[in-house]
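Predict structure. Chain length: 135.
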Amino acid sequence: MYGTHLMLRLGNVENVSVLDEPGQIGAFLSGLVTGIGMRILDGPHTKTEAADAVRYGHSGIVLLYESHAAVHTYPALRSLFLDVFSCKSFDVGAVVRIAHETFGDFNIVESAVLDRGHHWATDAEVELSRWLESR
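Prediction complete.
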């Protein structure tokens, strides 16, 4: 296996104001990844999506030496999507606890944890080399 991919959708977020603050979203991502033992390669970067009033929100990403973490917020819907993908093991429960510290109470509406890279042989370097040659 190459790594773990956590995908969450949180609803009924208590601290709605955080969902609408790009700086706080960036701070959340930085605190999240360092809190689960990852190292920041670049970012966080945040951008605002000025769509209609319901789909309006902010997206943020932090690139990690171990892969990436991303969040997409929807303040009017009191919800967000959160992805954490890493080749380094991490505690999914810690991700949820850190999210509670920033966003207060919420419901986990969707949750998926995938083990990625099963197609790779036991020698990941050989498989990665083959993959890169095919691109």
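Summary: The domain at 3-133 is CATH 3.60.90.10 (S-adenosylmethionine decarboxylase).
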